[in-house]
Design a protein that fits this description.
mainly alpha, two-stranded antiparallel ribbon, 6 helices
């Protein structure tokens, strides 16, 4: 079998690996942003910081959440965006902007790099 056919076969057999790597990369990126956002969140009692978490919605989406049901924090959105009485004190948006380069790097290294390494391994006949 020539290298092109081996690469094509390796790619199709590696689809599940690509999906798994993509999901793992999204989780890593969400954790990077969450960690930075927790550092930036204003602190009065610490409840807002403690309420931050990530949640995998599906294979292609990971949410970063603050507050919500069961956390005792129902003001995360009011802090981030402000209200008619209080000015905004953003913590999530600045964290996202601050981690932009690291996000791209993580996705490239974890997903694209690993997929090509796996394809090369299969072409070379290694498991």
């Amino acid at each position: 079998m020539n290298d092109f056919l081996k690469a094509k076969a390796a790619f199709f057999f590696g689809i599940s690996e690509i999906k798994r790597e993509t999901t793992q990369s999204l989780k890593r990126v969400a954790e990077l942003i969450l960690t930075d956002a927790k550092k930036r969140a204003p602190v009065l009692t610490g409840a807002l910081r403690a309420s931050g978490r990530t949640r995998t919605l599906n294979q292609h989406r990971v949410a970063i959440e603050f507050g919500g049901r069961g956390t005792g924090v129902d003001y995360a959105q009011a802090v981030e965006f402000g209200t008619f009485r209080t000015p905004p004190k953003p913590f999530l948006q600045p964290a996202l902007r601050a981690k932009k380069k690291e996000i791209k790097s993580t996705i490239n290294k974890q997903t694209v790099g690993r997929v090509f390494r796996n394809i090369r391994r299969r072409i070379d006949g290694r498991p």
